[in-house]
Amino acid sequence: MQIEPDKIEFLGSSAPVLDGMTSLRAFRPFADEICQFLNALSQSLMTDKEAKVYPDVITFGFFCRKGNIEKLKETYKSRISNRLGRGVTFHIAPSNVPINFAYSLVCGLLSGNACIVRAPTKSFPQTGIVCRAIQQIFENDTFRTLKNHIAIVRYNQNNDITAYLSSLCDVRIIWGGDDTIHEIRKIPIPPRAFDLTFADRYSLCVIQAAAYLEKSDPIKTAQDFYNDTYLYDQNACSSPRLMVWIGSHEAICEAKGKFWDAVHECIKERYALEPVIAVDKFTALCRCAIDQIGVMQEKMPDNLIDRIRIETLFPDLDQYRCAGGSFLEYDDRSLDALAAIITRKYQTLSYIGFRPEDLQEWILSNRLSGIDRIVPVGKTADFGPIWDGYDLISFLSRICDIH
Amino acid sequence: MNDDSYFAIPPYSLNKESKHALLSETLNSLTRHHYQACWQYRRIIDAIQFDTTPSRSYYDLPFLPVRLFKEYDLLSIDKAAVIKTMTSSGTSGQQVSRIFLDSATAVRQTKALSKIVASYFGQKRLPMLILDSSAVIENRAMFSARSAGILGFSMFSCDRIYALDENMNLDGEGIAAFLEKHEGKNILLFGFTFIIWQHFYKELKRTGFRPDLSKGTILHGGGWKKLADQAVSPTAFKKALHEVCGIQRVYDYYGMIEQTGSIYMECECGHLHASIFSDVIIRRARDFSVADIGEKGIIQVLSILPGSYPGHSLLTEDEGVLLGEDDCPCGRLGKYFSISGRLKNAEIRGCSDTYADRTR
């Protein structure tokens, strides 16, 4: 296949021989070389002066440290002894989450693969910091052999290049939006390869009002909720948009007051509301009010938090999603009504005052078609090798079976 | 106050207090009217728990986001009473606003516009050179912002021709003949800012054709976005036009299809002015409170004209600055302001689709 190589920018290393990647031998999952490389990357990032400004880079650096990778390896121990990486993984990162490409790369590497990563077209400082750290590590002789296993590329939309890179891969990992997935899927991959897609998802938070009132520290909870929402403009798929309050009417009223007051206090000095977002959120309220019966705007002191109270849980309520701090709120005595509207679209269920085992059992026994993650408030953005219901380590490696 | 006495008031003659009383009365009653007549409007007003019964300052009345008219058919009349549907001139693929007029609202729009225009150019009808193509108005069924503007302003002319042919080429001969016919008279030129620049100014510049329009007045609207992209400022726009045709009076106006008629005209000092038929309130994004003079904010527009659709109080997606009230050196009373441009698209962090915009 002919492509114009000068249209591809190689980040993190001098141009590796892309064609050659298919003939590299895959590693076993959690191979020592890879774990050591990640630890070196972690050390480099954690001491990088520029990285300090970016909490997402630091969090990523922390994720790659030896202790964490060893802990992860331990959880996979029994399942990886008969596995090898599939070969070459091609990761298409979303163009507006700076650090996502790095996590995707780590999953590809830990599974044992050579990785081609398409970094966001837009140049984020975070991309530069991570790629520079990788480059420095490759200058060290210890990791020279790994150099050909990683190609971080950047290019403007170009189907020829995407087709070429797709032709090399054993697994193509497409981080969504639905439209991106739809477009990329038109481009073929080799017969044995497959796509792993991360589509648009919708997430919610359930709060047991009485438990929140009794046990939670409102300030700490508000900070956790901030990390789930406003920290990334409430735009991550895992960021809650629907708040379901469970309990007696009185408890819910009191809990809501306390909760939102604390969240408002937490964000009022640090969240910069863009004017267009204020208009978007108000428009979302109006649309919801027109389409649904009994919609109420909950009064707040300003436009930082938009709360839309709904009387019933209706299907497709995700169409009123709006980034930047817009929440649908629903009160009930139990989770029964919620079960009826959960679709494949639902991803992360964050909670306050529930036992996660109970929520998991609620999903499994109701045989719900959605919700892949159950996390306490504050942890919705935490990355792990299990995402969207896929175990990436398993999917990106193959089994060599003895029967 | 009934329509006749309202339209008898000169459009820039009321000071803050008198205008406040008049607009409050009219806009409160419009709010009640639309609450009764438009179920979608009622649901929104109920959702924000606003009581329409007591009369209040028009500053305290609710507003709708202007985008709603792109997503919903909002009417306060029976569909059978619609005599005209106007649409915004969105670029292809964009959703357009749909505005439904009954005859009463259409008449009010025309009256308001004629009062505003007459206060600038006099009662006497002028020959008008339309800086656009006749092809724009051939489809009469759907009124786009462009055709509505052209037809709206044509009403105040005694004779008119289109400066551009159906292919948007400059009709030099036609213009020369028209100017000869009306030699010595004041001429009104009307068009959309970007089209004037692209198809009139640039063509004159390219061809070297230099019609004498020193007695002409240009009235133009439609926004600066495309010209700002080409780094053409309002001052540069005026200067450039003067150079190619000697024109001295160039007036911008701010208006939107959702509030046709009650436009905001630029004065001799370069300020946009609210007439007694409408007003602007600049609001802070943080809490929609009213911004101070000189403080940039989101523009809310109010108009006393919309009776057939709930468009009397709208939150636009434009940013602007209030420059003052009742004290513009041009002598017109009421607010004067400037437009800063469209609200900027947010730099969204998170994992939704932006890549797809580039794949398409």
Structure write-up:
- The complex is a heterodimer of chains A (403) and B (360).
- With 403 residues, chain A is of the alpha/beta class.
- Chain A folds into 2 domains: 5-199 and 388-399, Aldehyde Dehydrogenase, Chain A, domain 1, CATH 3.40.605.10; 202-376, 3-Layer(aba) Sandwich (Aldehyde Dehydrogenase, Chain A, domain 2).
- Chain A contains 14 helices and 17 strands.
- Chain A has helices spanning 32-46, 55-63, 66-80, 100-110, 125-139, 159-168, 178-185, 209-215, 218-228, 249-267, 275-291, 336-341, 356-365, 392-395, and strands at 9-11, 83-85, 88-92, 114-118, 150-154, 171-175, 194-198, 202-208, 240-246, 296-298, 306-309, 326-332, 346-352, 373-376, 386-387, 390-391, 397-399.
- In chain A, the strands form 4 sheets. Chain A has a 7-stranded mixed β-sheet. A 6-stranded mixed β-sheet of chain A has the order 1-5-4-3-6-7, sandwiched between helices.
- In chain A, strand 6, helix 7 (178-185) and strand 7 form a beta-alpha-beta unit.
- The longest helix of chain A has 19 residues, at 249-267.
- Chain A is globular, with a radius of gyration of 23 Å.
- Chain B has 360 residues and is an alpha/beta fold.
- Chain B has a domain at 102-254: Rossmann fold (3-Layer(aba) Sandwich), CATH 3.40.50.
- Chain B is 32% helix and 24% strand.
- Chain B is built from 11 helices and 15 strands.
- Chain B has helices at 3-8, 16-37, 39-47, 68-71, 103-121, 145-154, 172-181, 193-207, 225-229, 234-245, 355-359; strands spanning 64-65, 84-87, 98-101, 126-133, 142-144, 157-164, 187-192, 216-221, 249-254, 264-266, 272-273, 278-283, 296-303, 313-325, 335-342.
- In chain B, strand 10 (264-266) and strand 11 (272-273) form a beta hairpin.
- The interface between A and B is large, with 53 and 39 residues.
